[in-house]
From TrEMBL:
SUPFAM superfamilies: NIF3 (NGG1p interacting factor 3)-like (SSF102705). GO terms for molecular function: metal ion binding. InterPro entries: DUF34/NIF3 (IPR002678), DUF34/NIF3_animal (IPR017222), DUF34/NIF3_sf (IPR036069). The keyword Repeat does not apply. It comes from the Eukaryota. Belongs to the GTP cyclohydrolase I type 2/NIF3 family. This is NIF3-like protein 1. The lineage of its organism: Eukaryota, Metazoa, Chordata, Craniata, Vertebrata. It is found in: Cytoplasm; Nucleus. May function as a transcriptional corepressor through its interaction with COPS2, negatively regulating the expression of genes involved in neuronal differentiation. The keyword Plastid does not apply. Keywords: Acetylation, Cytoplasm, Metal-binding, Nucleus, Phosphoprotein.
């Protein structure tokens, strides 16, 4: 069995991934059929004209985009569906997921429900905080909090034990003891439309906003298999075998027929069905000789992703941008590095932002002004040399103000029996002295 699968994977790797395609597909991922006999003939001809078409050459490999109808998440829920009675933890988590799907979080992040009480109880009080610290936990215990939503995940790295000598593990123990659930959204809030980064870039003024690092659909990876069959009988046999070897796996296909060229079949299968599907097709002569595999790229989500770039409706000076961000973030002081050849009176027309630590996201972005929480010394030097001025607020100060925005958003979709509060103990650990 292992040898068989090894051979299948070797054959998969030997197939040339070819022909870029830009088909728009429906939400069911049904592929559009080829519209003419001439196109079918051309495609079929491409399969067999080169006997070495299965030889892979690294310079021939390319990424094939599969353009689909884009969709986006809504940052507001229907008020008609607002609960009227007590809510349990699962109901609140469902609302949080609808407001900012966890699938938007970065792959390295640790988001979602991090601490779950042993005994379920109604959610009456929710505490919002940027960081879960000892003082914030004491605040939550004093107010008999039922759920803490901590923007930053208090538990991030895997742990092998749960002991009180580690301050983060101690917080988890205290939460469990007090029956308090802990949830962290982190980068899902950064990526979502209307989230942290949209709030941050809005501090300088209105403008045409775009995403710096595009988010894509969380749908499972899928593949497009294209092959030919000589007759209807052979096609029926192949499809029956494919369905038999992919029990429980959804397969969508289209077939275009020709009196002289047989059938051209386009099949979409999920990643889990790739190996058994290829193994089945390789058992038939015609599909085996014509098989082509295309990876279907996940759908982009317009307006979702990390970082934002704004082309301001009304350009401002660097000095004005600094004052506006002080007001927006509620800070008396910000750190500023002027770009090469720039002054406080230089005009800012484009602003790039990334909440938190934005050096990697902002790197190479063309903008007059960068705004983020923190950057390394050398990242600042690189930005300044490129002509961009830099405003740094310290890490959590670039995020904390969004909690007040989210408080109103969340409260509007929960039962009236649930109170949402902002932590008074939460603050950035750094201050100017």
């Amino acid at each position: 069995m292992l040898t068989g699968y090894k051979n299948v994977f070797q054959r998969i790797l030997s197939l040339t991934w070819r022909r870029s395609y830009h088909e728009s597909i429906s939400q069911t991922l049904a592929c559009s059929p080829f519209s003419s006999h001439s196109k079918l003939s051309a495609l079929r001809s491409s399969f067999f004209s080169d006997p070495s078409h299965c030889t892979i050459r690294s310079r021939q490999l390319s990424t094939h985009l599969h353009l689909c109808h884009c969709y986006s998440f809504s940052c507001s829920l229907s008020h008609s569906s607002r609960p009227t009675g007590p809510m349990d933890l699962k109901e609140v988590l469902k609302v949080l997921e609808q407001l900012a799907p966890l699938s938007l979080a970065e792959s390295w992040d640790n988001v979602g429900l991090l601490v779950e009480p042993i005994k379920c109880r109604p959610i009456i009080t929710i505490l919002l905080t940027n960081d879960l610290t000892d003082s914030v936990m004491s605040e939550a215990e004093a107010m008999n909090c039922d759920l803490i939503i901590s923007y930053h995940p208090p538990l991030f790295h895997p742990i092998k034990c749960l002991v009180s000598k580690d301050w983060k593990q101690r917080l988890a123990i205290r939460a469990i003891t007090a029956g308090i659930a802990v949830f962290s959204p982190h980068t899902s809030w950064d990526s979502v439309k209307g989230g942290v980064n949209d709030w941050l870039v809005g501090g300088v003024g209105s403008g045409k906003v775009s995403v710096l690092s595009q988010a894509f659909s969380s749908a499972p990876q899928s593949h497009k298999l294209e092959f030919t069959a000589r007759s209807q009988e052979e096609l029926n046999t192949i499809m029956a075998e494919l369905k038999g070897t992919n029990s429980g796996v959804s397969l969508q296909h289209t077939a275009v027929s020709s009196e002289t060229d047989g059938f051209f079949i386009s099949l979409i299968c999920p990643d889990s069905g790739l190996t058994p599907s290829v193994q089945t097709l390789l058992q038939h002569a015609t599909p085996s000789q014509s098989l082509s595999i295309l990876q279907v790229k996940k759908r982009p989500l317009p307006g979702y992703g990390q970082g934002r770039l704004s082309v301001l409706d009304e350009p401002v000076t660097v000095a004005a941008a600094v004052q506006q961000m002080k007001s927006h973030l509620g800070l008396n002081h910000l750190r500023l590095a002027l770009g090469a050849q720039q002054t406080l009176e230089s005009i800012v027309s484009t602003v790039a932002v990334c909440a938190g630590s934005g050096g990697s996201v902002l790197n190479g972005v063309k903008a007059d002004l960068y705004i983020t929480g923190e950057m390394s010394h050398h990242e600042v030097l690189d930005s300044v040399a490129a002509g961009a001025s830099v405003i740094l607020s310290d890490h959590s100060n670039s995020e904390r103000g969004f909690l007040a925005v989210f408080k109103k958003r969340l409260a509007g979709h929960l039962s009236n029996s649930v109170t949402v509060a902002l932590s008074r103990a939460d603050k950035d650990p750094l201050e100017v002295v």
